[in-house]
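QA checklist item 7 of 12: single-chain prediction sanity check.
[x] sequence parsed
[x] length recorded as 228
[x] structure emitted
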Amino acid sequence: MSDPVFLITGASSGIGAATARAAAGAGYRVVLAARSTERLTALADELGGPERALALTCDVTEWPDQEAMVTHALQRFGRLDVAFANAGFGRGRSFLGGTPERMRDMVLTNVYGAALTVRATIPALKEASGHMLLTGSVAGHRVLPGSMYSATKWAVGAMAESVRQELNGTGVRVTLISPGQVDTPFFAEREAGRLQADDIARAIMFAVSEPPHVDVNEILVRPTAQDG
C-alpha cells in the first residue's frame, strides 16, 4: 500500500487520539504509541484495524521501546511520513508541591522522551522527505510560577528549532505545535471556554498538508478567552 504513514506518541487520549482520527480521515495509515494498551487497541480498531492502524505499547522514556516502535511501523507499513512526538504530562505549579520523583518523570517524559522519538524516527523521515511534529505549549512561551512543566516545554521549543536546523536541506519539515488550554484529561478540572483536542488536530493537519516547499515551523493556538 502507498498511503502515507503517521506515527503518534501519547496517542491513547487527548490531542494524540484526536490527531490520529484526523490523520486517518485524511487517508493516512496510523501508528499509535502509548503506555495504555487497552485504549490504543480500541482506537486502532476504530480507525480500520490492522491494515490501517497499528497499536504499540511504548514507554517513550525507554530507548528500546522507541526503537521497536519504529521497527514495527516499518515492518507493518513500509514507510514513515509523519512523526508526532506528543507524549507528555504536567501537574502542579510549585517546586515544593510535588515530589522529586514526579519532577524527574516529567523531564524524562516531556524532554528526553521527545528527544528519543526524534532520534528514532529521523532516518525513516529522511527517506520519505517527511514531517516531524513536537508538542510544545503556551507555557513554553511564558514562564509560569513554580512550573517544571513550563521549563520542559521551553526545552521542547528549543529542541524543535534545533532539529529543524539539523534537518535543513534533507526535505524533512519540522513543526512545533503549542496549544493553550485544551479540554483534555491533561487538566484535572473541566472549564468552559477551553479548546477541544479536535481544534489542535486541525492545526496539525494544516501544517502537514502544506506543499513540500512550505515549512510551518510553529503554530501557537489559544482559546479566545485565554488571557495569557
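[x] summary fact logged: The two ends are 45 Å apart (CA to CA).
[ ] second reviewer sign-off
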